[in-house]
Design brief:
By secondary structure, this protein is α/β, with parallel strands linked by helices. Helices cover 20% and strands 29% of the residues.
């Protein structure tokens, strides 16, 4: 059984049955949707979709505390390595990193990516997502920040993800209507909506996603920040 904890915005803590934990796009300090008082007790690996502050701002504190492997596209991994982060693993789209308790295959995403380096904004490589392959053979798709794009059909054919983590907030990513279309293309059994409600401009809501998925048989897992669900 896999434990999934949404920590607000696009941050997730995923713990497998053997105990190892993966953190996706960590943003704790300054995240208005992070559950107050929640503490991450284990992080064996961190995976980053792109370089924007609301997806990477807590990498350095977590890296200092746990010394996890930090997986990201090459430019982001290199930047964090230059800031003293140990065990940074740079990769690129189409590649797979095997962490033992989970395999991460980097996928495409339609967005932008940059790193805020003091008062400078620097190139952060391209945005990405991940296929997560767990030891029991099940697969999940973490989209990162993206619009809907046709390559999702290929991910369905190649990887058959059962679960999809999809942004629904609109404005900076796709909204509920596009996310519903993405879920159908992926052939997922269930969707975890993310990247919504953190700021007023992120207007998409899980209820709207449910409406657009009506009749599809795809379940919307409307997680509450800080609460853990079994998958």
């Amino acid at each position: 059984m896999i434990q999934i904890t949404w920590l607000g915005h696009a941050t997730f803590h995923i713990q497998v049955e053997s105990g190892e934990a993966l953190v996706l796009d960590p943003w704790i300090e300054g995240n208005p949707s992070y559950p107050q008082g929640h503490e991450i007790h284990r992080a064996d690996a961190i995976a980053l979709s792109h370089g924007h502050f609301d997806h990477v701002n807590s990498v350095i504190p977590l890296a200092k505390k746990f010394e996890p492997k930090v997986i990201a596209i090459g430019e982001i991994a290199g930047w964090f390595e230059s800031r003293g982060v140990k065990n940074a693993i740079g990769m690129n789209k189409g590649g797979t990193v095997d962490l033992g308790f989970v395999k991460l295959t980097m996928t495409h995403a339609v967005h932008s990516s940059s790193i805020q380096d003091g008062d400078k904004t620097i190139y952060g490589g391209e945005p990405a997502g991940y296929i997560l392959t767990f030891q029991d053979g099940r697969r999940a798709y973490f989209a990162g920040d993206t619009s809907v794009f046709s390559e999702l059909k290929l991910y369905a054919e190649i990887y058959h993800p059962e679960l999809a983590f999809l942004p629904i907030g609109d404005h900076y990513t796709m909204g509920p209507e596009e996310a519903a279309y993405a879920a159908r293309m992926l052939g997922a059994k269930a969707v975890v909506p993310m990247h919504y409600g953190t700021f007023p401009v992120l207007t998409g809501r899980p209820e709207q996603l449910e409406k657009h998925l009506s009749g599809s048989g795809i379940k919307v897992l409307n997680l509450q920040a800080g609460h853990t669900v079994q998958w």
